[in-house]
Each structure stands twice: as structure tokens, then as C-alpha cells.
Amino acid sequence: MAITPPEQRVWWNEPVEKTEVLWVTIALVWALVMFFMMPYWHFAGEQNLSNEAYRVKPDAYLAKVEASAEKHKVREEGTTGIPVVRPPVGGDAYLLGRQFQWWPVLELKKGATYRLHMSSMDVQHGFSLLPENINIQVHPEYEMILKVTPTRSGSYGILCNEYCGTGHHIMTGKIYVTDN
Amino acid sequence: MAEFRTCPETGLKVDLAAEKLIKWNAVTSVVFLLVGGLFGLLVALTRWPEVHLLGADLYYLVLTGHGLDILLVWVIFFEMVLLYFTSAILLNARLVAPTLGWVQYGLMLVGAAITNVAVLQGDSSVMFTSYVPLKAAPHFYLGIILFAVGALIGCGIFFATLVTAKKEKTFEGSMPLVTFGAMVAAIIAVFTIATGAVILIPTLLWSAGIIPHIDSLLYKVVWWGMGHSSQQINVSAHIACWYGIAAILFGAKPLSEKVSRMAFFLYILFLQLASAHHLLVEPGLSSEYKIFNTSYALYMAVLGSMIHGLTVPGSVEAAMRKKGYNKGLFEWLRKAPWGNPVFSGMAISVVTFGFLGGISGVVIGTEQLNLIMHNTMYVPGHFHTTVGSGTTLAFMAMAYWAVPTLWQRELFAPGLAKWAPYLFGLGVSFVGVFQMGAGTLGAPRRHWDMTLADATIGYDLPAASFLMMGMNGVAALAASLGGAIFILNMVGTILIGKRKTAAAAPAPAAPAPAGVSGHGEGVSVPGTFVLAIIFLITFVLYYFVNWKYLASVWPLS
Ligand SMILES: [Cu+2]
Fold it and tell me: What is the rounded distance in angstroms from the CA atom of residue B463 to the CA atom of residue B443?
């Protein structure tokens, strides 16, 4: 029994049941399939997370985001005073997370590929783009760059899904994707 | 000199000092299960959209307490019970250094209390993960460190007891498989606690203002070396419980010692790698690192779990078939004691841990698939089916046998206990399923208000995700009821259970069937194999459905 010492002193030499051999083989093959799916997707798939990230001081990042917003601002979002920024097609789009807001609102063009920069001013935040359900962790002092290609036009919500303080649940943002 | 008694039910020689430690650790674990469980119920009632019980501040406070008391305090106190039981008692040995055992108990109790106080004071609502630079009060970290040091001492006593038992020849040959499983858990625990010290001590100093800065990414990499491995202690420990229960109820033997022990051994070699499961969408870590690390190098630890998934029910099937339940594929399963909470708890634990916890864990831990689930409700969905209906239910099942046996009392309310594993196990399983569903629809975890009513820029989550969170609340109520019956039974048995008479019922451990010598005698386990194939098909289908879902989101690189 499993709660008593093995009956055979040398249990190592006991023959293994056929069913077990078969199952171990099947499980091993499946484990290998799952393993190779990940490198395979790097070549065949289009959703792979960027390996591009830089160290950045929060102030320096804020300056970059504000400069971009000033240059490419097209309007404000409703009465919120938050700028709607239309970055150059195929160019750099900047987004920052801070307690408790995603800033600014971005307007992207469908089918174009952008370099989306993300960083945090304070603590960790969670970038959750809905309804796509793309979820990325955003750290302070790290600027991550992600090449994204919006494939459907419409308005998208950004939620914070990493707990970041008492206002965590009001931390939202927005991305518009336009046809032209 | 150690004093012993002989257990009338099992014939085991019980070291009285070990027994006392087991009792105190067991009682304390159940108290924290009660506290953590109540916190959990409050969380579920707040995330039930129509109820939305607590205010935001209290919700984040209670959520932090729920994670700490269940994921850490309850399970590790219970694991101390298992360490003392599987070493001293199963090996008929004396527990080494029982006085040090009280230091283990004291440190863990004081540590858990301090951290709970820090959380209840309200300025440490940083969640179980306490990611820097979000800061908790210094004593929040101090309590966890004391708790961990206590657990480390418990592991040391366990190892010393193994060595002494071997030296004093209190058992013949190799240690029992259950003890081997507990040893694997203890080895992983030592790595885990060392990693925890590496990160939590500097974090304590940072919180106290002595160290100015901790890198948020570095913190997270090291923290998960502790955070993930701590859950692998649970996996090894609860699988040891599965084997133990199969042996106690059915006299089951492992199909082969070699395969089962190798499967445990894979955990030692590969589980430590798994920490990057939690870092798949982090900046600054390479894809190569993520792939190697999350797959535990070629998914070798997953292989270990898949092997146990066959060998545990397989050993039950073999034992039942030897008793003559040989008709068809599943007579052995139909005729199993489904009204006994020890068995039903174990069976539900095996099935839900495999089908829900295991499959979702691999999916969520796949480098690219993680992108569509990271930090959504899918994540708590996953760990409620691993730590909840997996580990916690397995421990409960063990306790339904161990508490009446150790205290020499009848179970307090056996009629109610019959229902508890179903209410708790299925309740928590559905909690997991609904949370995974809500997460797939984008509902964020750790979030107080899905309606985003106060946000400057609103967003409407799908109505179905609100429905799922409502159902989550209902399932959590069922689970709470099952948990309450468990606690009532434990407390009732200990305090006012009827004393067992000396001539108690015969040993529940059935004697080994006649003429058994090792395993070549070919009891095949076709029923278990069919179940395993059903599991595999579910796994494969669900895995590729998620790749398909991933392929439909925005291209990114
Ligand atoms: Cu945030």
C-alpha cells in the first residue's frame, strides 16, 4: 500500500503495467506537442509578445507622451479634457498608465501597424484592451514597445486589470479605430 | 524518551508528542480556513453584481485577507500536519525534536496573526502578491517572513525524522509512497522559502524606509519563485493525500512504485522553473526564457501530474477489481463508497483538479495564449480549481478520516458530512468555471465595480459576464455551505464527538488481498484508461480552441 513501505525491497525492478507504459508515452507526446506550439507560433502565428523594452525614468516617459499628445492631438474626449491623439499612420503611439487613468485616448487607423509604447508613472498596472481581450502588464521604469495592427474599426475600452490602489476600478481609457 | 500509543484502528505506533503537534496544527489550520473562507464569501458577495455587498476599500482589504489565509496559512498549517503524520506516524518512528515543533507552531501562528492584523488595519490592501512599488505596512511582510521561518523549521524536523527512522530501523525497505510524496513537498518547500526570504526581507526593509527602491520586475521574478512553487508544495502534498486515501479506504497499492515515484521526482526537477507562468506578458523578459521556464522544460512536470492522474484512480480500480468488482468497465467506480466523504472528497478533487485546474493551468501558462487571459477573472478561475476543489478538498477528505482517528471520536454529523464534499467540491468547481467564463469575456480580476460607473471613460462589459459573476456568487454560497459543514464536523468531533470504544470498528485499511506479491499479476485498469483518454481528448480540444481564439485578436509582435 501507499502508506506502507513497498512490499518488494527492490521495487525498481518490478515490471510496469502495460496501461501505464502506454499512458506515459501518450502523455509525453502530448507534452512535446504543447511545447513546440510556442516556438511554432513565433513563426506561424501573428500574436507574439514583443521582446522590445527599455528602462525609462517616469518623468522622461511622461515628457515623451505629452510631446506626442501635443503634436498629434485632434480633439478632446467628450467633456473629460483628455486629448484624443491620432499618431502618424505606422508610427509611434504613446500610452501611459497612472493612478487612476490610461492617458491619452488614441485614434488608430484600421490595418495600419503602430509601435505602441507603454509605461507606468507609479505602480504596476494592467492594460486590458476590450473586447479584443488583449492583456499586458505595465511596469514603472520599463517602456515596452508592441507592434499592433488593429483589424476592426470601432471604439475599444482599456481597463486596468492589475490592482493598483483604491481607485483601481475607475482606471479606464479608450482607443478608437477608424476606417480611414 | 518518546512515548507511544498504538492506534486501535490502524495498528500504527503513534508518537504522543507528534500527535499533539498534529492536533494543534490541524485545529489552527481549520480556524484559518474558517477566517479565509468567510473573507472569500464576502468577496463573492461583492462581485455578485446584484448584491455588491462591500464598499471598495473593505473589498480590497477582504480580498487580500482571503488570498493570504487560504493560499498560505490554511494550506501550510495543514501541510505541517501531513509532514508530522507521514514521517513519525507512518514510519512508526519518534518525532525528532518535538520542542522545536512548538517553535514551528508558534512562529507560524504569530506570523499569520501579525499579517492578518496588518491587513485588518487597512493600510496593507496590496493583495496576496503585494507587487512593489505598491506598499504595505512593514509588519505585513514581517508576519509572512515569521510564518515562513516556522514552516522551514517544520520541514527540518520532517527530514530529521526520516533520517532517524531509517537509522533506527523503524520500517523495512523504502519509505512509503505517501511519505515520499510528502518529502517531495518538503524539498520544494525549502526552495520556496529560501526564494521568499530573498525577496521579502529586502521588501520589508524597503517598506520600513531602509532600502530606497526595489525594481518592480526583479521583485516579480523572484516573488513568483516563491509564489508559484508554494502552490507546487500543495500539489505534491495533496497528491500524497490521494494515494493515502486510496490506501486507507481500499488497501490500494500504486500500480507500480517506480512510475509513481518517478512522477513525483519530475516535480523536484522541473517545478521550480514554473515561475514565469506569471510573467508572460511582462516587459523585459525574453521569449526564450518564457518558453523554457513556463513549460517546466518540455512540460515535464505536467507529465508528472498526468501520470498521477492515471495511477491514483488506477490503483483504486485495481484494488476494487481484486475485491471482485469486475463487471464491465466501471462497476468498480459505481460500487465505490460515494456516501463516504473521505472517498467522494478525494474523487471530486482528482477529477476537478485534472479537468479544470490542470487544463486551464497549462492553457493560461502557454506563452502566447496567456495574452487573452492574463489578469482577467480566468486567473482566479484557474486557481480556485487547483487550490480550492483540488488541494483544499483533498485535505478536507483526509481530515474526515484523520480527525476521528486521531481524537478517537466518532464523526460529529456523518449525515451532513456525506453532502459536504459535493457542496464544497462542486461549488468551488463551478466558481472556477464561471470565473473562467467571465474572464474569457474580459471581466477583470481583483476589480470592485465591473459596471465602471465612476470611471471618467465608461465601458460596457458584456451582459453575459455579469451573469457569470452572479452565478459565481451562487456557486460560492454552495461552496461555503459545504465548507461550513466541514468545519462544524471538525469542531464538533473534537469537542463533543462520541468517544470511540476500545473495540472500535475494524481497521478501515483493508488487509492486502491474499497471494499478492508485487505487481506482475496483471490487474489491468481499462476503466481508468478510458477516463484518461476522455481527459486527453478534452485537453487537446480545449487547448486548440484557445489557439483559435487567440488567432482572431489583433496581430501584434
Ligand atoms: Cu491601474
Answer: 11
DSSP bridge partners of A81 = none
Specify the pairing of strand A83-85 against strand A105-109: parallel
Burial A157-166 (b: 16+ CB within 10 A, else e): bbbbbbbbbe
Tell which A residues from 27 to 66 touch B, by Cβ distance under 8 Å. 27-28, 30-32, 34-35, 37-39, 41-42, 45-51, 53
A149 inside 8 A of chain B by CB: yes
Distance from C-alpha of A31 to C-alpha of A50, rounded to nearest angstrom: 25
**A14 neighbourhood in chain B, CB within 8 Å:** 256-258, 518-520
C-beta atoms of A48 and B556 within 8 A: yes
Q: How far is CA B553 from the centre of its chain?
A: 34
Q: Are B80 and B102 in contact (CB under 8 A)?
A: no
Of A12, A53, A173, nearest to B457 by CB-CB distance is A173
CA distance B336 to B330: 10
> Residue B452 — left, alpha, or beta (φ > 0 → left; ψ -120 to 50 → alpha)?
left
CA of B186 to the centre of ligand 1 (A): 37
Provide the grid cell at B344. 467522494
**Which H/E stretch holds residue A95?**
strand A92-98
CA of B48 to the centre of ligand 1 (A): 22
How many Å lie between the centroid of ligand 1 and the Cα of residue B509?
A: 54
- DSSP at B5: E
The reply to whether the predicted model has a pTM over 0.90 is yes
Q: Which of residues 378-437 of B touch A (CB under 8 A)?
A: none
Count other Cβ atoms within 10 Å, centred on residue B258.
18
Mean pLDDT by 10 residues, chain B (557 residues): 85 92 96 97 96 95 96 95 95 94 98 97 93 94 96 97 94 93 95 89 96 94 87 93 96 92 90 76 88 74 92 95 93 96 97 95 92 96 95 97 93 95 97 97 95 93 97 97 97 92 51 43 82 97 96 94
Q: Is B99 an 8 Å CB contact of chain A? A: no
Distance of alpha carbon A46 from alpha carbon B83, whole angstroms? 48
Q: Report how far residue B415's alpha carbon sits from residue B402's, in angstroms, rounded to the nearest whole number.
A: 18
- Contact yes or no for A166/A120 (Cβ under 8 A): no
Q: At what angle do helices B98-121 and B16-47 cross, to 10 degrees?
A: 20
Handedness of CA A137, A141, A145, A150 (dihedral sign): positive
Q: Are B405 and B9 in contact (CB under 8 A)?
A: yes
What's the CA gap between B232 and B433, in Å, rounded?
Answer: 22
- Furthest C-alpha separation in chain B: 75
Cβ pair A134, A169 in contact under 8 A: no
CB of B217 within 8 A of CB of A139? yes
Are B457 and A50 in contact (CB < 8 Å)?
no
Report the distance separating Cα B384 and Cα B430, nearest Å.
9
SS3 B55: coil
The ipTM value here is 0.95
CB nearest to A23's CB, from B248, B516, B529: B529
Degrees, nearest 5: CA angle B177-B178-B184? 90
Cα distances from B348 to residues A9, B21, B528, in angstroms, run 33, 29, 15
